[in-house]
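User: Before I run my own analysis I want an independent prediction to cross-check against. Here's the chain; please return only the structure tokens and, at the end, one sentence I can use as a sanity check.
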Amino acid sequence: GVSNFTRRHLKDIFSFCHDPPVVLQLEVHPYFQQTELIEYCRDEGLQLMAQSPLANGQLGLLNNKVLAQIALAHGRTPAQVVLRWLLQLGIPPVAFSTSPERLRENLSAADGSFTLTEDEMSQISFLDR
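Assistant: Structure tokens:
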């Protein structure tokens, strides 16, 4: 796998690499969705992994009103909503925490106990900056 490659970097490596990478780890979250790069990767059969899915706690992402409303509707946290959004997009997130409680909370986004509606997924897609 590779990390933080752009489309140009990927095209270069695909042009000469006998065994091209199968995973691209990239920064992706509701404020930085990188839809064109994601579409390109999917077209090339490259699996994506979301690095910094919670924007490293920066940018006010976890205080976003849209995410808070969706979280409230599901009895979840905004972080769980973001992680679930990524999972429903087929992009496994890599979320870190030093808190065991937060780790359990983050993992519960993947347990299938809640699903975002198409409308909620669409609302999150409009958060891209």
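Sanity check: The beta strands are 2-3, 23-27, 47-51, 93-94.
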